[in-house]
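Sorry to interrupt, but I need a hand with the structure work. Please put the record directly below this note.
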Amino acid sequence: MQAIKKAISWKLFILSYLFVEGSCQDFGGGQTQFICTSVPKDVDICAATLQNSMPGENLKTTVMQLRETVLQQKETIMNQKETIRELTSKLTRCEGQSAPEPGPGGRRKETGTKNTMGDVSRGPSDTLAQLSQTLQSLKQRLENLEQFSRNNNSVQANSLKDLLQSKIDDLEKQVLSRVNSIEDGKPGMRNETEQRGRVESTLTSLHQRITDLEKGQKENRPLDKFQLTFPLRTNYMYAKVKKSLPEMYAFTVCMWLKSNASPGVGTPFSYAVPGQANELVLIEWGNNPMEILINDKVAKLPFIINDGKWHHICVTWTTRDGVWEAFQDGVMRGSGENLAPYHPIKPQGVLILGQEQDTLGGGFDATQAFVGDLANFHIWDRKLSIGEIYNLATCSSKAQIGNVFSWLESSIDIYGGASKWTFEACRQLN
């Protein structure tokens, strides 16, 4: 009954409206006719009247076209908003990101995300500095190859050297172009990822060609006369020792290092075992001093080595009372105790040079990667005497090699663009 009343009210309202306002359309003949039609509440009355007087199909087509136009404009606006958000996000990343704060023991705080770009997150100026450093490293290696080719009259080596030099010149032009783009208001930042991919691809190719060329030198050098070079902070450049360490109740680890990386030289080596990624680690990360980690316990070391010069460093440790000693260039610089006392170094782990492990054999973080040169890495399962360490640092003929691990090319595999080339520790002292 209520519905019938509403319908009658609607019809009366429409009829009175039409009589007051006049007709919506004159149908000719000089006489005005009024059409009484019930229409929904939200529909314009004149539009409803016109719909009855116009061809229905044309009106329907017009309405559909208008609706489609509105939807297209709405979609265009949404796409433009999304594009603006994406460009804003990319510009923010290009302007630089801050590195995470260090956690206890100089290690980073977990943020739930991992750097998957390969390089440490950095702004354009840092990227250009790293590229320049890489180019300088490649040039230095080419100079060594040039000297080698002169001594051996190698025509093939000379031709390859010229080709590589040309490619390095092209890379320098790309770096200069990126500098100009930044100075002109960063108009090329939208293509940052694409440009970076091209440069890194070229660098990888150069590293491979130079490595192939350097293989010609291996036949003319002893297996222990080499160094590893890590030119960039990445999470993919590293070297892996082919065998694990035995269980040890004492150890001495020694090596030659050269780096001018800042802040911190990174991680010269890390040893992880199942269930403990920080079984034995040497690391200098961020603004922290260099540290030795044993079973995730930390001792700060008094080393100062990031001056771009070669330094010989040794660390000794015994499980009894956790006593440790630190030597730089043959001189004891510090000592302590209570570093993981009565905890033997566990066997069946993975020994990595150049990266800090968060998981067994992986989980690398570019911000903790070693940048520089490393050579003559040796490990003993005992504490060396002060005299023995001095002999190592001064290249004495009485110097010994590690009985747990000794520095040989055949004992190491390299990955991700890290390189090997000839190194004589004693020539650095002359």
Confidence is low (pLDDT under 50) at residues 4-8, 10-30, 97-106, 108-122. The chain has three domains: 2-54, 124-218, 226-429. Residues 160 and 166 are 10 Å apart (CA to CA).
